[in-house]
Amino acid sequence: MWWLLDQFLTCPCLGRGKDAPLLPEEDSGGGADFGWAVAKNQRQRMEDAVDVQEDVAGFRMFAVYDGHAGDEAVSIIKKTLPDILRTHLQEEPDVEEAIRLAFRNTDEELMKTVLAAARKPEEVKVSSGTVAVLALVKDKDLWICNLGDCRAVLCTDGTKAKAVSADHGAEKNPAEAERLQKLGVEVRGGYVGDHVAVSRAFGNITYASGEKVKGIINEPDVYKIEIDEETDFLILASDGIWDPLKDQFAVTHARRALRTTEQPQDAAKAVVENAAKVSAADNAAAIVLVFKFPEPLPKRNTRPRMTLAGLNEP
């Protein structure tokens, strides 16, 4: 996969000026059964992104990325992960193993690219990084792949919110806190090694050693779900959504929009906009993938209007 390294050695996102945005800062879109929305909100730079690929080795792929310490890592991962994932899904019959290999190899290629393109690494100790949550859909099978603190939440049985993934952070996840403790990694204020606020991510390379920050791993959690009659829709979103909104509130806002307009794009926008009403301190990105549309809101019965002339009639 060295072609990926060659492709990005001259990537304009590496070493560019601070005023050159690479990721869309406020946008939305979608299709018949999915919608997405992103917003920079009050952050100085946009580091969140979404991606939809209709055919990755026979799977539909939906992804939300949340970068940190810059947008270099998220920009590269968004471009490279689908192709690497496609290769492993074609070569490896075990889907879960293919996903894990793809995440590992994507991170390795990112590290090579970042280290090779570094201008003045002595000025910055640690490179940028990104977390990600992906959904892969094929027939009735839904695979959720999570790395970091983006989150996947299902709406089931009409109205119920169910978190599928677990956030990877020492303060949010006891298992991750225990793993870091066993490694002798210090966590202060939620930050691993004083640099990263999550415990799993792509990137976050220490320039001095050429290795990832100790304790940060590229191993995703992978979940397989069977899509059935009780499966309504899925929300994939960054922590710019989940910090302000509880899972159930996000589902409620998305469902209300789907019942009102029957447009998944409006559902994603409703999630992003309602999160910003609570807090717009962080970038936000959301995808709503619909498996079964809710019943539309009942139409109000209106009486025919009488004209003024009609009021004077006997």
TrEMBL record:
Q: Where is the PPM-type phosphatase domain?
A: 33-291
Where in the cell? Membrane
The record's section on SUPFAM superfamilies has: PP2C-like
Q: Does the keyword Cytoplasm apply?
A: no
What keywords does the record list, in alphabetical order?
A: Hydrolase, Metal-binding, Protein phosphatase
**How does the record say this protein sits in the membrane?**
Peripheral membrane protein
Q: Recorded GO terms, molecular function?
A: metal ion binding; protein serine/threonine phosphatase activity
Q: Please state what the protein is called.
A: PPM-type phosphatase domain-containing protein
